[in-house]
Amino acid sequence: MKISTRGRYGIRLMLALALNYENGTIPLKSIAKDQGISEKYLEQIINPLTKSGLVKSFRGAQGGYTLTNPPAETTVGEVLRVLEGSLSPVDCVDHPNCANSDHCVSLSVWRKMKEALDEVVDGITLADMAKEYAEKIDKYKTHARAVYITDVINKDSFMKIIPSNIDAAIVDFDNLLEPAILTTHYLHQMGIKNIVVQCENDTHGELLTLAGASQIVYPEYEAAKRITPLLISKQLNNYIQLSTDFAIAEVEILDELEGKALKDCGLRNNYGINVIACRNKDATEFTTISSPDFVFSKDCNILIAGNKISLEKYIKKDIKKERFGTKLLLDRFIRKAK
Question: pTM of the prediction?
Answer without folding.
Answer: 0.46
